[in-house]
Amino acid sequence: MNDKLTVLSKIAREMNSRSLLWAVGGSAMLYFRGLSQCFRDVDLLIEVRQATMAQDALLALGATQKKMDKSDGCFYSGFFCSYEWNGLDIDLIGDFGIIKDGVLHTYPLHSFDIDATALLGNAEVPLHRAELWKELYTLMDRPQRVADITRGPLCERPYPLLTTAKRQPEQQK
Fold first, then answer.
1. Residue 41: pLDDT above 60?
2. What is the radius of gyration, based on Cα positions, of the chain?
């Protein structure tokens, strides 16, 4: 797990140095909140208009773009690209959405959807709101993840990497 955290801290420093609006979602977000004991990959939610800049940040670090597999029909994104860097799989997602019962539910990234920051060394990792992911996991039919969020932290104290929210400014249109 330490290798993944080291890689993520370097990604965070690079994304932050470029003043990008971004947040960690999915299982990594749950991990930082103490709602899961591990994560396999990292979902980086981005503001779709900054997709090229976010790609440039990952490529500058040495990440390699992965060949796209046929995606699950329930997912939608205005932008999606998958990378691998130092053993960590990274999905870069803009305007994330879920198609459920023929209806598209979209979740573009906004600064108000970032409610906490995890500190990895000297890198700040913005975290997407857990309640938003509870809604997403419900749409994805992943009841265990919904239960993880509903249950609350695995320990009685806050997860040690979690700090008070630091909002990122909305980017100019």
1. yes
2. 15
